[in-house]
User: Fold this.
Amino acid sequence: MKGKIFAFFCSLLLLAASSKGQTIDGVLYTNFNNYYKWRGGAFDSTLLIPQIAASIGRRPGALRYSVADSSVYSWTGTQWRKVGGASGDTATVVKAYVTNAEAVTITKGQVVYIFGAQGDRASVKLAKNTSDTFSSKTLGIVRADIAAGAAGWITTQGQVSGINLGAYTEGDILWLDSVPGSFTKNKPQAPYHAVFVGVVERANAGNGLIYVKPQNGVELDELHDVRITSLANNEIIRYNSSLGYWENKSITTTLGYTPLNVTDTTAMLLPYLRKVDTLSLSNRITAAAAGAIAWDAADSLYSSAQLKKGTFRTYDFDGTSGVSGVPQGSGDVIFISATALSGTFLNIRDNNINGISISTGGSASSSPCLTNGYGTSVNVTHDITGSNIKSTWMHFRVRTPTLNDGTQRFYTVIGWKVGTAANPTESAYFTYDLDGTQTGSTASANWQTVSALGGNREWTTTSSAVPANTWQTLSIRATTSSVQFYIDGTLVSTHTTRIPATGRMHLQIFKTNGTTARLLDVDYATFNQLNQSDR
Assistant:
């Protein structure tokens, strides 16, 4: 009974107490000293109400409406106790009396939001989920049609009946829709705003029942520990511990540096390709079609069609007087030609480098070498230049542990060469020849470069001294018009008059004086040749 009494008096609170009477459930009741008598399930209009000042005549259950605090009190027999005060609010429906600010009638069952105020009442318009303006202040569902500019009731929490819910199922969750005033059972996704409207308690085409309780979804910048200012594309949210909140910043600002562009293939690959090729990669590596890497689009190309484009070999010496993964005996492998030419081969274990050391041994005239396509039964040369060859590269990672001195003399040959004898008639190579022993060479402590064809030679003495016990990468590039020589990626000479047509990869040391062994250390060698057209 208390629930019914309190629900009734919630309406009573909206009315001004009159000394002449009150209309309750359509019946006029006389107000006598602010008391009304509840009897038989209804208010009694016969004025059988005790005097407010009388000390007797009040029976338990008598009710009093107090104008002073707009509350209902019940007489317990000893005192007046506020109804619902100790046991809590027992209201089942919360309503609001509002003004329709739309230019059209808002019909029963439509969802509205607070637009402003008019005539001492909040004004409303049809809500929708397309922006914060129309959704964040969603108030409730209209209980009955409200004409434009007129006032009417809406339910902000509780049941609304008589709604057409034939397309719904009991238990469906209702969300604010993008159609003005409508709701949907499909939860909206960004950029639409997710505003919970209520739940279907009874699904019926003409007498559906909704329990209404709007709950507005929040946007990121509405959270108390998030601060968004001047949004820009591709920004991220990061936490600022000194300020105590999350904020939007660019990736560059967050990292403290500008990230590498994923299309910058050169800068990305440089650290990884130094092992294979220490030439000026930044000048020679570009992006190729379908994700391939072009080594100076005019030169070697690594792609899915690699074998059609040319020939590519890398010989990484494993330090056991052999070549990793390549069996001896085929026409394109490194042969260790030491027996016939004297000398020995030693293993190298040096700061994670495994290699081979070509040693002259104790002979004063030995000339051991490493070469590909050469042996007692195999004698094969590679075309270096030709009509279908665009360019040919060779790279050698080498070291001279001990330089020439007064008694122990030698010279080295590193590059392309036909045969194993001194002064080849067709070749392109680097040489260290302090005595000027070879035909056309100069007595110099610097690297010299030579290219030969038909017995005629072109020589250059570079400005780069041969260092002791220091690894260097010596590279040679040949085309039909020139031979270029590089030391650690720097061009040191270009020859244009003597361009070899054939040759083999060749590393050799010639002892000319003294019986103390001298060495030429080799880490790896590569051969890259690009054709003019696919084969």
In short: The chain has five domains: 2-82, 94-216, 220-255, 265-305, 309-531. The chain is about 5% helix and 40% strand. The first strand starts at residue 22 and ends at 24. The chain has a mean pLDDT of 76.
